[in-house]
Design a protein that fits this description.
The structure is a single chain. The chain is α/β, with parallel strands linked by helices and 443 residues long. It folds into three domains: 59 residues, no CATH class; 248 residues, Type I PLP-dependent aspartate aminotransferase-like (Major domain) (Aspartate Aminotransferase, domain 2), CATH 3.40.640.10; 114 residues, Aspartate Aminotransferase, domain 1, CATH 3.90.1150. The protein contains 13 helices and 16 strands. The protein has a seven-stranded mixed beta sheet, sandwiched between helices. A four-stranded antiparallel beta sheet has the order 12-13-16-15, with helices on one face. The two termini are 26 Å apart.
């Protein structure tokens, strides 16, 4: 996926229009204003000016193969950028005033709640709570549901956004059981059932690993929870927008999703979806624009869990991202990413001195592949991929230390390649060639 700059009028001067080769028609065109470029040069460059100017132009003009979609998706659909820009210009503070800009923000929030509720099959849109990311949603849910002497079951494949809140709650008297996953990252419904006690309040499970992509059998685990009268929470950080998630069919009581990953929204967006009848204690209290005569937090949803000014601009982008996904079709997105993942998995597995971790069956994973080059630190591999080939990956432990212990990579970490909808087969081919060269030169 190359980047090709071409002149274009931009504002009062000429700019660079940066297009990505092989991109989807809905992917954005990036505009770099030459006047702004010159200002940056004058402001920043006091030493070796020529060298620094060349460096900046290289950054602007170099190819980018983005394989860090598990961290955040990039690029976003053009409609997302347009929605964010429109909301910045034409929306006010939702639920705070009666003028047209505030009402526009109210409508936007309601429409997005309805979309999210429909997308995940939650009956009441009022049970959709906006958060700034999936981590906040998880914190609100875990700390709002669990009390002293409650028991919670989770897995060794969880992200720190689950493990750290549970660690704190454990110090406060909550009992925590962490189920050990296999080297491929699987936990079975039988393991979950056998861990249930009389005081088990909650089962909290990731839908897919952010380290090796393993998909957990959430429908079966949800059935176990339902049959035992235990609440079921799903962390859908790696699956919302890629895999179908039906809260009713999977017996999900609480669903936590990020807006900025496969839902295609901007950073600073997320949501907590709570089945009606489940009471979650607020993590934050404050202004809601409702019941302002009372100093007590409203008891009704979503106000119970939503205090302060919401990220209306980000939510506008999230709405556009959801509409893009619905337009493309979830199954089409999944099939495209399966094709890319299969090609990446097979290509890396064929390289000498490269170990690939996790499942080998792409049908049982999302587009996340972890690998290690023998004798080369993953951080160095990732840096070489970026600096020499323009390929963006993520090295290290990926905020999931127990997952790396489960697959045997805790001492070194891995290089994580994570595909997205805007990646192409050419991207994967170039990545395999780059890895082959790195293995030959450094492995």
């Amino acid at each position: 996926m190359g980047i090709e700059p071409t002149p274009r009028l931009f504002g009062r001067g000429t700019g660079f229009e940066v297009r990505q080769a092989h991109q989807h028609p809905s992917a954005p065109t990036f505009i770099i204003d030459q006047a702004l470029f010159r200002c940056c040069v004058k402001f920043l460059f006091f030493g070796d000016k020529l060298r620094k100017v060349h460096a900046m132009r290289e950054i602007f003009n170099r190819k980018i193969i983005y394989l860090d979609n598990a961290a955040t998706s990039w690029p976003k659909p053009e409609a997302v950028y347009e929605a964010v820009d429109h909301a910045m210009r034409y929306s006010g503070n939702a639920s705070r005033s009666g003028h047209r800009l505030a009402l526009e923000a109210d409508r936007l929030l309601y429409q997005t709640r309805k979309l999210l509720a429909s997308f995940f099959n939650l009956q009441d849109p009022a049970q959709v709570v906006f958060t700034k990311n999936c981590t906040e949603a998880l914190n609100v849910a875990l700390k709002g549901l669990l009390k002293v002497k409650d028991h919670v079951i989770t897995t060794s494949m969880e992200h720190n956004s689950v493990l750290r809140p549970l660690s704190r709650l454990q110090r406060s008297g909550v009992e925590v059981t962490v189920l050990q996953a296999s080297k491929e990252g699987y936990v079975t419904p039988k393991q979950v059932a056998e861990a249930i006690r009389g005081n088990t309040k909650l089962i909290a499970v990731t839908h897919a690993s952010n380290v090796v992509g393993t998909i957990m059998p959430i429908a079966d685990i949800g059935k176990v929870a339902h049959d035992h009268g235990v609440l079921f929470l799903v962390d859908a950080a790696q699956t919302a927008g890629v895999l179908p998630i039906d809260m009713e069919q999977c017996f999900i009581d609480v669903l936590c999703v990020p807006g900025h990953k496969s839902l295609m929204g901007p950073s600073g967006t997320g949501a907590l979806l709570v089945r009606e009848g489940i009471v979650v204690e607020p993590l934050i209290e404050g202004g809601t624009g409702s019941l302002s005569e009372s100093i007590e937090q409203p008891s009704f949803m979503p106000d119970r869990l939503e205090s302060g000014t919401l990220n209306v601009v980000g939510i506008a982008g999230l709405k556009a991202g959801l509409e893009f996904i619905m337009g493309e079709g979830l199954s089409n997105i999944r099939q495209h990413e399966l094709k890319l993942t299969k090609m990446l998995l097979e290509g890396l597995s064929e390289l000498d001195n490269v170990t690939v971790y996790g499942p080998r069956d792409v049908e049982r994973m999302v587009g996340v592949v972890s690998a290690v080059v023998k004798g080369v630190d993953p951080a160095r591999v990732s840096a070489l991929l970026d600096q020499e080939y323009g390929i963006a990956t993520r090295p290290g432990l990926h905020c999931a230390p127990l997952a790396h212990k489960s697959i045997g990579t805790f001492e070194t970490g891995t290089v994580r390649f994570s595909v997205g909808f805007f990646n192409t087969l050419e991207d994967i081919e170039e990545t395999i060639r780059a890895m082959k060269h790195i293995v030959k030169e450094y492995g």
